[in-house]
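Annotated sample (chain length 371).
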Amino acid sequence: MLGDFMPFLANVLVQVGYAGMNVTSKLAMESGMKPLILVAYRQIFATIAIAPFAFFLERKTRPKMTTNILFRIFLCSLTGATATQVFYFVGLENSTATVACALNNVIPAATFVLAALCRQEAVGIKKVSGQAKVLGTLMCVGGAMLLSFYHGHTVGIGESSIHWKYADKMASKSANNASNFFLGPFLVMASTVSWALWLIIQGQTSKKFPAPYTCTALMCFMSSIQCAVIAIFSDHSISAWSLSSSMRLIASLYAGIVCSAVTFCLLSWCIQKKGPLYVSVFTPLLVVIVAVVSWALLREKLYVGTVVGSILIVAGLYVVLWGKDREMKQTKSNEIETGEATLKKEGRGKEDLEQQLHRPEEKENHQAGSA
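Output written by the structure step:
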């Protein structure tokens, strides 16, 4: 029971962490911080945070590093860290948080398709478990889209008593900023594809190199170099790299330590335990959490579309989890039946061999008695 609950709890905590990152990162960019520089700082702080854990906790249990494993980790850094975050934050800057969160929810569908193509996930459409996974994924994505794009009437729950003056100030400053509503959604969509690719590659890497701390540390280190080079080419001024603003520093530290170091370790562990599809299905929960946080801190109203979309997301989530659980139980049952059949076959083989060995002895004894 605990073995099933811990991956579930870890994935929920990851989405809570990402919700906080969306709020702090958006405020940092509204204060003038460049998204590419924010991504570079995120990877640098993540490397510093996770490196000691990788060294001390996995020093004796770390598998041997090979060129093939190092190349796989490089691909993980390129897809899961650099490409995903660069595309997402630049897309977020050129769009709105609502559109970014909505488009981010195509990850389960993209991962399901890519995992099926890579033969990491069995579709099993003829089975009830396979139909549940397909239906649940569609419900999650559909609920997230409904929550983001359809408002409807406001729900009469009143306004939140929590008010953040800094957030109100930054929101008023950025109200007149121009956004590219074609480039933004396109880049966010590209980030979801990159993240889906990372889930697939990480699933294969975790099996061959089961050391999540070391893998995360190397991935963040490689990504910090990649992101720093991209950021320097995009902005040469030293002032752009300044962390004198408290929000810039908080956003960089939070994104690096919580949303890269901690979450990558948790996600790598969860992928190793449950597979890439299980992890990706939790992504739509981010929209629900962001909606609640936005209502509580940023005084955003709660609409009928938000409530209906949230119900669809939670329902779809449990449908997929039920389908995945049923599939895993069926797989274990088949393995047990196969093992029992093999043992029975081996037992029968031994009995036949013993009978063949005893027959000559019985024949000799019979001939001796006749004589």
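Annotation: The chain has a mean pLDDT of 78.
Annotation: Residues 304-370 form the longest helix (67 residues).
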